[in-house]
């Protein structure tokens, strides 16, 4: 044994080659401080052993190295800039020292080699991957750029165009694609990986592969003439500007860094990378995106833990109510391998549900993501029926009929008579109290809410709503079923609108009040999309939701939380609904929807909408971007805070993920609580107080006022 650490070892094989094996105590290998220190010590031990002819780097686990330990980042990035720079510089120099070993090196890559794992492989002279490998630099998804030499080595291995595409998108590559692009030198079957790596490094040691030339290319400036460089980097800049926009600084920084470093040697290029990394580490976007990653891990960990505790197997689902929503839920169950019965009272509704599933699959086939076999299997796994007795064997029944408590109550009571005693019954209601609906059932303990978001196949979130009488076993089984359907479950407690819609409707109310005060809905949409970063502004979103749905849900919320959510007099949403301007579903709402000359969907601000709103509104006036954002986001933030304080949602992290996955909250802002924290609690209190005169939805809780005074955090 040449070196033995907690997370990696180096041993000398009989043929004179050293084997550096990453095998951490946990389930995966990752670069934390301990592992980086050990890599440096191992490198020095190899360099000091004259018997070593070459080095093979491999993993003792099913994955190579999954990246850096993100949990160490938050504390480290809070340190002063010079300390973060010192850390990243010293760390990247560890990889340099490994790269400078006096013998050839090869990485034997199995499973994930991401971030720091990919950078470790790039520090080797040669790389061989097996067919399970996935290689990439996904740091952009955390608002960062590679920090251990990735922006230096990858462009010099596969060319700047390919490297920038890898880094600015963060997408990984399977072995064959990595081979085609020159990132690895061979792809072999998993059982041949070590043998192939040893054979290749032996060839290098014998001079059959010029490993010194390869290494020199990685430590020299990029081989680009002036015109090539100009074309390469201007194309990359245009691509990033179009794809990422102004809210995500990381991809822009990568292009700039690779461009400026292209004429420098390794030391100069690495210094630029270190500086860029530190600048990004200090941005709000990086804090937000790292926060999302950690919150996502928390949510997924909770879900898996709950699912493991489930004692009930879900082998067949049933959906009551076909239509668009029911069809979407049925498709999601079937495509993930759980057969589903889709029941309705009318054949046209069943036809609509089946056509919804077929439409989703058809689009997948057009894009080459769905095979005819998958399409056939999925559709065959959906059984349409008009009869209740078809659901008798269902383990989980999801009611998705019209959003009316009386109708839902009748359907739930009928359902209970036709299913087994241990079948679980759920409602896909978006606003109606689960406790209220549970009154229709003889066994409310097996009932909960299972709120999907539209379009079901695209939206990752399912809100699982626990009623007063819902058992832990029921929740665990529904969480397991949600994961089985490929969705992210977040468990919340019952209240009107639950979590997502409860915080959305004060946002809509803030929008309506703003229009009545003379704002232009197109200007508001523009600010909330372009500046705040929502995928749709409020007017456009209301058109997509449907004015009938929004008006009905607002009535439910007003009944449930009358002290804050009373319906607004002359609410533009109600005015448009009464005029039968329902939004996208009938082509006219705030916007008129149609097709342009090329047959593509179009939307134009509707003169008719202005005519309906204007008689009830103040004279038209321009509001600043800051005021528009404040008047819409303060009500949403206040209601989210109340949900947390009341125990509707268990943590700020879960609330952030729910809004991200259920509403498309801008990822660079990290979620509603991350948004409040980035502003600073004291600043948020001051801003909300400025608008408190506008009504109860703008008035903050005593809890947040106290937290701000005490300097506390929602993420402590």
TrEMBL record:
Q: What is this protein called?
A: enoyl-CoA hydratase
Q: Which InterPro entries match?
A: 3-OHacyl-CoA_DH_CS (IPR006180), 3-OHacyl-CoA_DH_NAD-bd (IPR006176), 3HC_DH_C (IPR006108), 6-PGluconate_DH-like_C_sf (IPR008927), ClpP/crotonase-like_dom_sf (IPR029045), Enoyl-CoA_hyd/isom_CS (IPR018376), Enoyl-CoA_hydra/iso (IPR001753), FA_oxidation_alpha_subunit (IPR050136)
Fetch the PANTHER family from UniProt.
TRIFUNCTIONAL ENZYME SUBUNIT ALPHA, TRIFUNCTIONAL ENZYME SUBUNIT ALPHA, MITOCHONDRIAL
Domain named 3-hydroxyacyl-CoA dehydrogenase C-terminal is located at: 497-592, 628-692
Q: Respond yes or no to whether keyword Oxidoreductase is given for this record.
A: yes
Highest taxon of the source? Bacteria
Q: What class of enzyme is it?
A: lyase
Hey, which family's this protein in? In the central section; belongs to the 3-hydroxyacyl-CoA dehydrogenase family. Belongs to the enoyl-CoA hydratase/isomerase family.
The record's Gene Ontology cellular component field reads:
fatty acid beta-oxidation multienzyme complex
Q: What Gene Ontology molecular-function terms does this entry list?
A: 3-hydroxybutyryl-CoA epimerase activity; delta(3)-delta(2)-enoyl-CoA isomerase activity; enoyl-CoA hydratase activity; long-chain (3S)-3-hydroxyacyl-CoA dehydrogenase (NAD+) activity; NAD+ binding
Q: What is its EC number?
A: 4.2.1.17
> Hey, which pathway is this one from?
Lipid metabolism; fatty acid beta-oxidation
Work out whether the entry's keyword set contains NAD. Answer: yes
Give the reaction(s) catalysed: a (3S)-3-hydroxyacyl-CoA + NAD(+) = a 3-oxoacyl-CoA + NADH + H(+)
- List, for all copies, the residue spans of the domain called 3-hydroxyacyl-CoA dehydrogenase NAD binding: 318-495
Q: Which Gene Ontology biological process is one annotated for this entry?
A: fatty acid beta-oxidation
One Pfam match: 3HCDH_N
